[in-house]
Amino acid sequence: MPATDNAGMHASPRHSSKGFSPRTIGIAAAVITVLIWTAFIVIARASADPARGGTLSPFDIAFCRIVGASLVLLPWGWWLVQRDRARGLGQSSLFGLSPLSLRVTATVGLFGGLLYALLAYSGFVFAPAAHASVLMPGSLPLWTALLAVFILRDRITPLRALGLTLIVLGDLVVGGASLLRAFDGGEVWKGDLLFMLAALCWSTYSVLARHHALDAVRATIAITVFAFVSYVPIYALLMLGHVVPGQVFTAPLGELLFQMAFQGWGSVVISGITFTKMIQHFGPVRSTMITALVPGLSAFGAVLFLGEPLYWNLSAGLALVTLGILFGVRAAAPAVIKKETAGADTARVRG
């Protein structure tokens, strides 16, 4: 296929020959995504855990995430829409801020923009970062593979099935122990469940992005526009009316700016674009499996920076999930290579 720029328009062959290769862009996108996702787990736990004295609630952090990202992406979306209209191309929705149709914007925005943030940040209130390290990135290949079967008509090979089985076992080793402690009044299981649901939401977004062949920038803008329109005004009014105990208007400015910068610009703008770029190059299943480094790195970061203990069940679950992801990568590689070769042949015929 012809190379495309960030706005989704066809680039000239001359520009493509002088720019980075698709493989280089895909690998760079994967590295950036892994690093930001690793930092996201550690920083989100440090921010949302009430025991660490954080001022902001999970809903406040989600508010900062959306507002921070919106400062960059809403003007960008408006510019793309105006440019498309001048050329008589493209679609738009939500006051001309989203460069995608309303149906696509609402669908990907609900799962990839709003629900993911609310569920993930809420999970860190109850469960430690090490649990998130296993259950969030670890569950992505499982949910993505299952969704890809129904939405993309993908198939699960025996080797990939083995990898997914190991992931399920790893999740059970971690989450099962927390569920048993619930009978003693423990609440960690609530965080584990929220982490699993957050992973399901992100997997849904990743498969939908592939299904609709969404451009990386346009998809990230669309999910941010939807989250901003559907969440920010309502939550702000609820806080001003003292209906919810939000701290956005009373928290220290430095804390708000930090959350807006990292959660908004880093976790949404940068990693949102790089993750979608990774999907475009590797496909949704292999992309989520490339994140095999995230569980181990973030678990180590939780031990190093947050002082969290790494119990035997967490270590076992981490090993099982990582092994399962690696099996998935090995299973996905031949299909991806075959698909990329077919795509290159088609591009040469069209050229």
Explain this structure.
The protein has 351 residues and is mainly alpha-helical. The chain has one domain. 78% of the residues lie in helices and 0% in strands. It contains twelve helices and no strands. Helix 2 packs across helix 4 and helix 11 packs across helix 12. 53% of the residues are buried.
In short:
Helix content is 78%, strand content 0%. It has helices at 13-18, 22-48, 58-87, 102-126, 129-151, 158-181, 188-211, 216-240, 253-282, 284-290, 293-306, 312-350.
How many individual domains? 1
Radius of gyration: 20 Å
Number of strands: 0
Q: What sequence of helices (H) and strands (E) makes up the elements?
A: HHHHHHHHHHHH
Relative helix content:
over 70%
Decide which structural class fits the backbone. Answer: mainly alpha
How many helix segments? 12
Inertia-based shape: globular
Approximate strand percentage: under 5%
Head-to-tail CA distance between termini:
9 Å
Whole-number average pLDDT? 82
Q: Low-confidence segments, ≥5 residues, pLDDT <50?
A: 1-17, 335-351
